[in-house]
Design brief:
With about 120 residues, the protein is an all-beta fold. The protein is built from no helices and eleven strands. Helices cover about 0% and strands about 45% of the residues.
Length: about 120
């Protein structure tokens, strides 16, 4: 059984500029075909516009407020919202609140810098 404690995972900055903690992936567990990470964006910060040719993502907003942009559509999102991001779709998320934005990001296959294309 793999149990990873969030506070024991070192955060790193992804190619799009967000700080994430990779909670479960092939790099630290028996999970082989996906990854789960916690991302944090401070107030006013946004990820750079990008897409993943091979990876589909799910963002799940844990706390904070944000504007999610997928292709040419933008929408306000907040706690409890789950966002589907198909492969190849340009996307960005911007923290519109006055506190850190926390979201869970599930990627299948697992997140890789090499599968991130900046726009």
């Amino acid at each position: 059984m793999d149990v990873i404690q969030r506070d024991q995972v070192q955060p790193f900055v992804t190619k799009d500029g967000s700080e994430i903690r990779e909670l479960l992936a092939y790099r630290n567990s028996s999970i082989q075909r996906q990854s789960l990470a916690e991302a944090r964006l401070p107030p006013g910060a946004a990820t750079a516009a990008h897409y993943h040719p091979n990876t589909e993502e799910i963002y799940y907003i844990v706390s904070g407020k944000a504007e999610m942009t997928l292709a040419d559509t933008s929408r306000e999102v907040g706690p409890g919202d789950a966002i589907a991001i198909p492969p190849g779709q340009v996307h960005t998320i911007r923290n519109t609140g006055d506190k850190d934005l926390y979201l869970l990001c599930c990627c299948a296959p697992a997140y890789e810098h090499e599968d991130t294309v900046m726009v």
